[in-house]
Design a protein that fits this description.
Main location: membrane
Strand content: under 5%
Largest sheet: none
Protein name: Sec-independent protein translocase protein TatA
Membrane topology: Single-pass membrane protein
Region (Disordered): 43-76
Number of helices: 2
Number of domains: 1
Radius of gyration: 29 Å
Function: Part of the twin-arginine translocation (Tat) system that transports large folded proteins containing a characteristic twin-arginine motif in their signal peptide across membranes. TatA could form the protein-conducting channel of the Tat system.
Shape: elongated
Order of helices and strands: HH
Distance between the termini: 84 Å
Amino acid sequence: MQPSVWQILIVAALVLILFGRGRISEMMGDVGKGIRSFKKGITEEEASAEKPTPKIDSKSGDASAETSKTADKTAV
């Protein structure tokens, strides 16, 4: 059983009466803010995932050991 046009109009009128026009627009604005903050969080997460992590020397367990070796090679 599908709702008729009149039933949809009555439900829409009741929603407007209960919540008011201003309240519905506020809720839609909040939904938009939530979507924007979600997208911002996703792009920040992707940006942090793209940053290279320092290589850790397996012998000493020091992250700076790898960079000091490359610095010595370029100095020679």
